[in-house]
Write a structure and sequence with these properties.
The structure holds 2 protein chains of 2 kinds. By secondary structure, chain A is α/β, with parallel strands linked by helices. Chain A has a single domain, classed as TIM Barrel, CATH 3.20.20.140. Chain A contains 9 helices and 8 strands. Chain A has an 8-stranded parallel sheet with strand order 1-2-3-4-5-6-7-8. In chain A, α2 crosses α3 and α7 crosses α8. Among the domains of chain B are: about 35 residues; about 35 residues. In chain B, about 50% of the residues lie in helices and about 0% in strands. The longest helix of chain B is centred in the N-terminal third of the chain and has 27 residues. The chains are: A alpha/beta, B mainly alpha. At the A-B interface, α4, α5 and α7 of A face α3 of B.
């Protein structure tokens, strides 16, 4: 079955990972800008990073017939630095016309500080000024519940923001309901140690239904599995879920979301790219 | 899709499919608690805010109430809404500390 990896930090992965993902059915990867594991010293570093995301990675992915799209921002882990934020935000617009850029992300909060919220709001304004879609990171572990609530509280203040063009990612049992209730897309990220396991992801799909839910590996430089999405397909088959339901989650939902950018195309494969009539 | 949010498997099928892996997990938790009792300095683990939350989670685990995972998630979560004035640390610790250290 073909699938779309909605959240993969491929700059941290090898070319062999692209190959493994392609062989497992991956036809597209959506890559949000993120934290390098260390704080960057200047906005110049972001210029180089954005060039990597918009030039080098699409070429690397295309070797395996994978369509690569990216999201640009200053990541929440660096959002406390307001001076750096201001410099990076000035540099993002010149990249927005690149053919693989689909929006602003992954923005949000880390420890839910005042500066992080201000940085988050600056990014939302930038996205609205340039009619960009938005991909949002929610904080980890004990900060997730509070961070998701603060995220939604701030988003709903923007009356011209279409929730259908916003994906709030890294949802878990205590946050997925509030995200969906407000009309946003959400993402379940499958990690071996933190966030969501395969079985818990399927539990949430069973409880909340498949509409506006996407699945991703969120593979990066830490412990993570680039082929976690095909593993979830197996977990769903283990429980007797239909192929139609699986396809909706791993292909149709991300396709429908990304198509709103006006820039997303599937690679030239024999892929039936329509979404089912049951999709929202 | 089952509109009631039910798993498509029967109770027996769920046990057949998932018992062994969850047996392993509960033994891992037991071994972790035993390891704490065998610590090099014998300091009681219950003094640590993370283990206090862990203890609450264990109580929920052994109850007969539904939605255990949702309740346990909230036990580990920061329930406040006030924004932090400054960044205290880069990474989360896994449980909310109601009495954070002064840095």
């Amino acid at each position: 079955m073909y699938y779309i990896e909605m959240h993969g930090h491929m700059v941290s992965r090898t070319t062999d990972d692209y190959r493994e993902m392609a062989m497992a059915g991956c036809v597209a990867v959506s890559e949000p800008a993120f934290w390098a594991g260390w704080d960057r010293q200047s906005a110049d570093s972001f210029d180089d990073y954005f060039r990597q995301l918009t030039d080098f990675e699409p070429k690397r992915a295309s070797q395996f017939f994978i369509r690569h799209v990216s999201w640009l921002c200053l990541n929440p882990k660096e959002g406390e630095d307001r001076r750096l934020t201001a410099e990076v935000l000035k540099r993002i617009p010149k990249f927005l016309d690149r053919p693989n850029v689909v929006g602003i992300g992954e923005i949000g909060m880390n420890r839910v500080t005042r500066n992080e919220v201000d940085t988050f709001i600056d990014h939302i304004r930038l996205a609205l000024d340039y009619n960009q879609m938005i991909l949002i990171h929610t904080p980890h572990l004990e900060d997730k519940y509070k961070g998701t609530r603060v995220t939604i509280d701030n988003l709903v203040k923007f009356q011209n923001l279409d929730p259908n063009r916003v994906l709030i990612d890294h949802a878990e049992e205590h946050t997925v309901g509030m995200i969906l209730e407000h009309g946003f897309y959400t993402g379940l990220t499958l990690y071996p140690n933190t966030k969501v396991s395969l079985a818990r992801a399927v539990d949430m799909i069973e409880k909340y239904g498949p509409d506006r839910i996407t699945i991703s590996s969120a593979c990066d430089w830490g412990p993570s599995v680039p082929t976690a999405v095909p593993q979830l397909m197996l977990e769903m088959r283990r429980r007797g879920h239909s192929e139609e339901l699986i396809r909706k989650l791993v292909f149709e939902n991300p396709l429908k979301f990304l198509m709103q950018s006006g820039k997303f195309e599937l690679p030239r494969l024999d892929i039936h790219a329509t979404v089912s009539h049951t999709a929202p | 899709m089952n509109k009631q949010g039910r798993c498509p498997l029967t109770t027996s099928q769920i046990i057949d499919e998932y018992f062994i892996e969850n047996r392993t997990r509960i033994l891992d938790v037991a071994a972790y608690l035993d390891r704490l009792l065998r610590s090099a300095n014998s300091q009681p683990a219950g003094e640590d805010f993370r283990m206090q939350a862990f203890e609450q989670a264990l109580h929920i685990l052994s109850s007969t109430e539904p939605n255990k995972v949702d309740h346990i998630q909230l036990v580990f979560s920061d329930p406040t809404t006030e924004l932090k004035a400054h960044l205290d640390t880069k990474s989360a610790s896994g449980a909310w500390n109601p009495v954070p250290e002064v840095r």
